[in-house]
Amino acid sequence: MIFRQPNWTEPDADEFRARVAEIVATEAWVIDGSYQSWVGQLVLEQADVVVWLDLPMRVWLPRLRRRTIRRALSGEELWAGNRESLRKSFLSRDSLVLFALRTYRSRLRRYPERFASYDVVRLRSDLEVELFLRSVGPAT
């Protein structure tokens, strides 16, 4: 994770863009698309393929809740010493769960246009994800 710094702080925008630019200049990489507002089209323009995990809310929401609760209760370190808490994860304005719920419908509306000029694989079920992963082979 190159975005979140210790104590959940964010990096300097120029430094973050420079770090992402170094990564996408290499031959092989996989990057989460959540930070497009920070890096613009930099990642998309360098990508061979965009994989859009478009699973139904009934699939991803329970997974997100379970994973978040497990991490908060176990005290698992995520990166840079950061740990999730039940309060921050569910009851704060910075809640990942609330963010995911608030932005879900707008992503469904925006992504088709945003990705229109790119090679996109849109995966809408666990079976499609499994078949796609089999098709690309094991990670090296």
Note down, in words, how this protein is organized.
This protein is mainly alpha-helical and 140 residues long. The chain has a domain at 1-47. It has helices at 13-24, 36-39, 42-46, 57-74, 86-91, 96-114, 126-136; strands at residues 50-53, 77-79, 82-83, 120-123. It has a two-stranded parallel ribbon. Strands 2-3 form a two-stranded antiparallel sheet. Strand 2 and strand 3 (82-83) form a beta hairpin. Helix 4 runs antiparallel to helix 6. The protein is globular. The mean pLDDT is 92.
Residues in helix, %: 40-55%
Our estimate of the beta-strand percent is: 5-15%
Overall geometric form: globular
Overall mean confidence score, pLDDT: 92
Low-confidence stretches: none
Largest sheet: 2 strands, parallel
* Spatial ordering of strands, largest sheet: 1-4
Attribute tags:
mainly alpha, 140 residues, two-stranded antiparallel sheet, globular
Give the SSE layout.
Layout: H1 13-24, H2 36-39, H3 42-46, E1 50-53, H4 57-74, E2 77-79, E3 82-83, H5 86-91, H6 96-114, E4 120-123, H7 126-136
Parallel strand pairs: 1-4
Antiparallel strand pairs: 2-3
Helix pairs in contact: 4-6
